[in-house]
Amino acid sequence: MKKNNSKFPGRLISLFVLAILFSTALTLAIGIYLGKLYYAPPVETAVLPEPIVSTSPAVPTIDPTANWKIYESSDLEFQIRYSQEWLIKDTSIYSYDPGNYLGEKPIPEKIVKCDFTLGNDLSSVNVKNTEILQTENPKITQLVTEYIDHKNFGPGSSTNIRYVFEQNSKTISLICFFFDRTYEETFNQILSTFKFIERPSNLIY
After folding, report:
1. Alpha-carbon distance 114 to 105, whole Å?
2. What is the sign, positive or negative, of the torsion defined by CA atoms of 177, 178, 180, 185?
């Protein structure tokens, strides 16, 4: 008895059609993927605004010592500026005008009175503390000292504070006999204007 194979061609055709449809779908999917991969639309980049640069003019630096008085010593060869409330006379600097306190009028309790002198003689004192206020042109150093022998100096003859100005081979000391630290900020500003000067060569002695 023979088997009936009439259904086989139909199944084969169905499988062939399914294979074609699967192949077509696979090809379409691959095409869409590659299209997105290689032909994706360009991404727009946001343009950031340029930073605003301030064009306001620079504020000029005001020199508080510009209108101060100028003292110049041809003997000690230095120049220094000082404010209107101060006085420099005969190489002495005062925080007050001693001419206004003659007779019975007492001088202020808080004052500064210092004397400029050539060199820096430390033979009669011990240096207890040193502080550099300015490193060059000129170098300014504050010294806190104590007298080795107080018998040679009257009480209150010095506050044991002196300033030393040095540039090249020149040295000048400023020995303070009265020094109230209320004036320290202004006093340091005055000292910052100190500078050595050259003695005119045409002077006759």
Report:
1. 21
2. negative
